[in-house]
Amino acid sequence: MTVYLDFKNARCKDCYKCLRACPVKAIKFENHQAKIIEEQCILCGKCTSVCPQDAKTVHAETDSVKALLNGNVPVIASVAPSFISSFGTDNFAVFRIALGKLGFAEAEETAVGAAAVTAEYGKLLESGKYKNFITSACPAVNRLIQLFYPQALPYLAPVDSPMIAHAKILKKKYPNAKLVFIGPCIAKKREAHESGLLDAVLTFEELKALFESSDVKLDEIAVLPGTEGGVKNIAKYYPISRGIIKSFPACPEGYEYVAVDGVERVMDVLDNIELLDKTFLELNCCDFACVNGPCSLLEGGAVKAGAKIRRYVAEGKGDFVMPSVEGTDLRCEFPRIRKRRIIPTEREINEVLARTGKNNPEKLYNCGACGYSTCREKAIAVINGYAELDMCLPYMREKAESMSFEIIQNSPNGIVVLDSDYRIAEINNRAKTLLGIDNTDAKGISAFDAFDSAELISALVENKNLSKKKVFINKTKKYIELNLVVLSEHKTVFAVMKDITDNVEYSEKLNKVKLDTLATTDEVIKKQMRVAQEIASLLGETTAETKVALLQLKKTLQSGETTEE
Ligand code: SF4
Ligand code: SF4
Ligand code: SF4
Predict the structure, then answer these.
(1) 412-499: CATH architecture
(2) What's the pLDDT band for 67 if we cut at 50, 70, 90?
(3) Ligand 2 pocket: which of 27, 141, 263 to mutate (most atoms within 8 A of CB)
(4) What is the pLDDT of residues 166-210, one digit of tens each?
(5) Hey, whose CA ends up nearest to atom 6 of ligand 2?
(6) In angstroms, what CA-CA distances link 225 with 91, 222, 229, 230, 550?
(7) Is 375's C-beta closer than 6 angstroms to any atom of ligand 3?
(8) Could you tell me the fold of the domain covering 60-314?
(9) CATH number of 341-410, picked from 1.20.1640, 1.20.1630, 1.10.15, 3.30.70
């Protein structure tokens, strides 16, 4: 199966923006990678246009077009009129020359086919048999109806799109040629492929790249006066909103003519189609219609682009000669396409909800963070294999919080987290024992009330990182080694307390032993001095040497002494 649109692997960052934007939820997540569900996708391109990672990958046909152009068969281009707003030229003669430089044998505007489509719509409307009449030029809308709105199928005009109509006209004119459609739409790729009438579709993005790689510059192409090629054809209005309605020389009577663009508004209309009566509906999935297609190259926005198209049509020279469509059948069918989605039972849905902690209605937050509008919708997607359990943000947060709670509670050290007002935001049982806090729920209590240690409080209010500070807790008679980390970004202080009471007591005992040894040594020196004085006269200078040696011994002992802090 050809994948016309997808996301680049490894670029996806699990933000679910694409899923939120997708009107029909035709995206699944596998191992944290978004993937388009081809058979349910209407190719509206909304998902890729919102992706912050620019992870769009459109089915590329540049190489197959190059192969066609290098072959022996003439290649004819059908160019959507929105080229004007994407390529900065309103002269189709320039465009034809540029395409000729790439190797195209001929190029025509798809508006030729659009004029034939409008004429066909006119015939159907005159029959008066339609309660409502939905135009069928946008393949994304057609697919939307075929897949999701079977109740609207009877109103969908059974008429080819301008691209297909033009392809049929070109096929008659150039029976042996290869045909390539060029436009701003991704959905046209699938439509062309399924029709079997066209050999390839290039998006404007692909054509721009081709021009660049072949060094074709539109602004350097000059045309002889009188060969501009513009002809007044009001079907060139097609790419703008209300363009189809404007393409009627005179709208057939008996209908109200309404144009709706943007997929959400289109869905709103389709949801309520039975409420409408004698309404002609021009529906386009893209906001502002095809001029703003997902592969257009707009500079300055869709409104400016629409204005360019209006001016282009208004300034068209000469009279458009309607091509002969005699013997060309422009009628087509849009059969219903059935979705292969599992419809789960209530029990199955509730089981999945329970696996993400949603055991009661209060837990159904319906926050939309996962990309689905409701928790229930997401549970159904999980059952269908389109979504993963851990896409639920509140569930993951609760899970992470309970995990960090377990880690904190089971730490052998005391842990306290204080907020910016020095109130206890988190405290574990070990810290409560060390600090002598009896309150079972100490959260929210001020550190100044809870901590019975001036030393600890002054360390806290200094608001500086601290490492291995020895602090005595009077209430519990414990010595703690305090490490403080100030998390300025979160306006919190993180304190880790290690019980060092045993170490301190041991080192105090050790110090005492040393001091006792020192005192004994002093006594020995004094005694020695007395003896030395007595025998000084007998030993002379030897006494002084003994003194030096003994004083050195004293100094050595003193240097090893551990002082109390
Ligand atoms: S928009 Fe979709 S594809 Fe793009 S990064 Fe977000 S989740 Fe991934
Ligand atoms: S192209 Fe449209 S229908 Fe298809 S996945 Fe993207 S948003 Fe959904
Ligand atoms: S609570 Fe979870 S499942 Fe429900 S909508 Fe929000 S993220 Fe989706």
Answers:
(1) 2-Layer Sandwich (3.30)
(2) very high
(3) 27
(4) 999 999 999 999 999 999 999 999 999 999 999 999 999 999 999
(5) 47
(6) 11, 9, 10, 12, 118
(7) yes
(8) Rossmann fold (3.40.50)
(9) 1.10.15
